[in-house]
Amino acid sequence: MTGSYAAAQGPLCEGAAVSVFLLPVSTQDYAIFLEQAADTYVVGATHSGEMTIEQARARADADLKALLPARPQTPGMLLRTITVDGDWVGHIWLGVRGSAEAKYGWVWSVYVDPQHRGQGYAELAVRLVEAEALDQFGVTEVRLNVFAANRGAIRLYERFGYAVISQVMRRTVRP
Predict the structure, then answer these.
(1) I need a surface site. Which of 5, 21, 95, 161 has the fewest CB within 10 A?
(2) Of 49, 56, 126, nearest to 64 (Cα)?
(3) What's the CA gap between 44 and 120, in Å, rounded?
(4) Residue spans per domain, the chain
(5) Digits of tens for pLDDT over the chain (175 positions)?
(6) Sign of dihedral through CA atoms 113, 118, 119, 121?
(7) What pTM does this model have?
(8) Which overall architecture, per CATH, does domain 5-159 show?
(9) Considering only CA atoms, which of 135, 119, 57 is closest in space to residue 82?
């Protein structure tokens, strides 16, 4: 398949041979992608206590519009649908950031449908999109942000080598 990245079998798939593909998000699927990416951000921002639902929704909508001016065809962005044995299971979005001398990949969003979670598909998708970013853009480092309350995602990223390089902390000061 042109423009796709595939893994024949995932390490967490209990020995079952599956075909995991990352395919470009189609124009038809772009609205679903936007909704899931925004919803994922809203959940993380509100569960962390960082924002209200309204604030998080406004920020997600503004960021998506600013970051993806050409929609799925925005240069430097890899918006991918995750499929397993031909069935949709989620999406992943990686963009290139930094300067020409110090560029890096940034994972903006990973979403796996709840019924498909815990089967290793997010890990495979991250590894596949990292490989695609290396091939297409020469990216040799990938970064991401994860809300502190999202313990499952933190464990997932730590398991395959992501390390904390900065941390935002807060404290409410009351009179």
Answers:
(1) 161
(2) 56
(3) 21
(4) 5-159
(5) 335 666 544 444 445 577 889 999 999 999 999 999 999 999 999 998 889 999 999 999 999 999 999 999 999 999 999 999 889 999 999 999 999 889 999 999 999 999 999 998 999 999 999 999 999 999 999 999 999 888 988 998 998 899 999 988 888 899 9
(6) positive
(7) 0.88
(8) 3-Layer(aba) Sandwich (3.40)
(9) 119
